[in-house]
Amino acid sequence: ETGVTQTPRHLVMGMTNKKSLKCEQHLGHNAMYWYKQSAKKPLELMFVYNFKEQTENNSVPSRFSPECPNSSHLFLHLHTLQPEDSALYLCASSQEDRPIYGYTFGSGTRLTVV
Amino acid sequence: AQTVTQSQPEMSVQEAETVTLSCTYDTSENNYYLFWYKQPPSRQMILVIRQEAYKQQNATENRFSVNFQKAAKSFSLKISDSQLGDTAMYFCAFRGGLNAGNMLTFGGGTRLMVKP
Q1: I want to staple A106 with a disulfide (CB 3.0 to 4.6 A). Which of A74, A91, B53, B92 is the partner?
Q2: What is the per-residue pLDDT for A1?
Q3: Given this model, what pLDDT does residue B29 score?
């Protein structure tokens, strides 16, 4: 356990469902991130939150909606997804003013859209 | 924009031998940070080793060491005395300096198989 916890670990959802992914960190970090990891593709940065404020949205479709209620929690709300959205979704956190420490990752949520 | 390239999609090595994974990057910055992450089948991305660009000395962490060539923009990872538990995907990552934003840019990864 690295200090970043993601739930659920696995999720199967239909294209008309609404679900949420949760990420929680107890490291005192002030930045949190969502990444998408698909087979045979590089990790794709989706969203960045610094001090609870969204600072990056890398042209992510609106069917993905992030929420950061405080610096310890990050959600990814999903609705009307497509089969190509099936992937491993990784959450990470970092201390923004200490770049040498890199990111701490969670174990990811394996999402399957049917 | 920074790019990170890992030219070896897959590699294999015999247990107890040494293997080197390649990584090159492109940046116009002078101060930045480089990382190697390991992702075993458990999916957890684990930080293996890190390097600050302004430090000339190559970083080492037990059996893991890097060969950082700043002029060539190269950051290779050497694993000595390979163990079966080293089997994983390895990702090279780049982060700019404090004023460049805090995003990590990852390479495409190298799948390493350690054979008994």
Answers
A1: A91
A2: 59
A3: 87
